[in-house]
Specification:
The chain has 245 residues and is mainly α. It has a single domain (9-237), classed as Aromatic amino acid hydroxylase (Phenylalanine Hydroxylase). Helices cover 47% and strands 8% of the residues. The protein is built from eleven helices and five strands, in the order H-H-H-E-H-E-H-H-H-E-E-H-H-H-E-H. It has helices at residues 12-28, 35-44, 54-65, 78-86, 110-117, 124-139, 145-160, 175-178, 181-188, 199-202, 225-236, and strands at residues 68-72, 89-93, 163-166, 169-172, 218-219. It is globular, with a radius of gyration of 17 Å.
């Protein structure tokens, strides 16, 4: 329970990592991130000066979006992760990356989750998309590993590394991009493929968790995000268990 959560005592070094990352990402994301991201950072009161109090932040996220934040000490498996999404809960790592992983953290950390994911929860299209994924995962046959892997691929290439066309140009909305300078530079490099988003292609694309992605998929319109989850759920979920809130 979040009400029983005792926040870690973050060291001056941890606070410095947060501050420098916050400054650098804010500068890099100017005119590169979807407008909803910057607006939510301001709305939530995220600041460079200090790591946010998770209890206070969760209450504000809940007030604004209906979602709750769940502190975790290590990365969750896909089953546990999707179960939280189905309940409109989002896990937040309490560990912040060390200086050696400054440019690219091989696994989610506090900055990735709080700076990258949490602001996007305030966008209704994005939040509904995550909830639909969670409901779809809950309705899958328990032993259908292929379907679960394809659902994870859809999450990965959207919520983690997704782009969307805004005013005719690709803008970032995936947390793996929003929170990583190295990933941003790789993504915007002219040599990096950025194909149009297609559910059938994405569901069969391999996930690369420990290095930069080979390609980044670009949604044609923000409003189509939730439709992507519903489309894949319609293929993967057995008919008697179709996704319902």
């Amino acid at each position: 329970m979040l009400t029983q959560f005792r926040a870690p005592c973050y060291s001056p070094q941890d606070q410095l990592v947060w501050k420098v990352l916050f400054d650098r990402q804010t500068a890099l994301l100017h005119r590169r991130a979807v407008p909803a991201f910057g607006a939510a950072v301001v709305q939530l009161g995220l600041r460079r000066e200090a790591i946010p109090d998770l209890l206070t932040l969760s209450a504000e996220v809940s007030r604004l979006s209906g979602w709750q934040l769940v502190p975790v000490g290590q990365a969750l498996g896909t089953e546990a992760f999707f179960k939280l999404l189905a309940k409109r809960q989002f896990p937040v790592m309490t560990r912040i990356r060390p200086m050696r992983d400054f440019d690219f953290s091989p696994e989610p950390d506090l900055f990735h989750d709080l700076f990258g994911h949490v602001p996007m929860l305030l966008d209704a299209h994005f939040a509904d998309f995550l909830h639909t994924l969670g409901l779809a995962a809950r309705a899958l046959c328990p032993d259908d590993a292929v379907a679960r892997r394809e659902l994870w691929a859809l999450y990965f290439f959207t919520a983690e590394f997704g782009l969307v066309l805004h005013e005719g140009k690709p803008h970032l909305y995936g947390a793996g991009l929003l929170s990583s300078a190295g990933e941003i530079h790789h993504c915007v490099n002219e040599a990096t493929p950025r194909p149009a988003f297609d559910v059938e292609t994405v569901r069969r694309t391999s996930v690369l968790g420990t290095r930069f992605q080979d390609q980044y998929f670009v949604l044609p319109a923000w409003e189509e995000l939730a439709d992507c989850a519903a489309e894949l759920a319609g293929v993967l979920v057995p008919v008697p268990h179709r996704v319902a809130a």
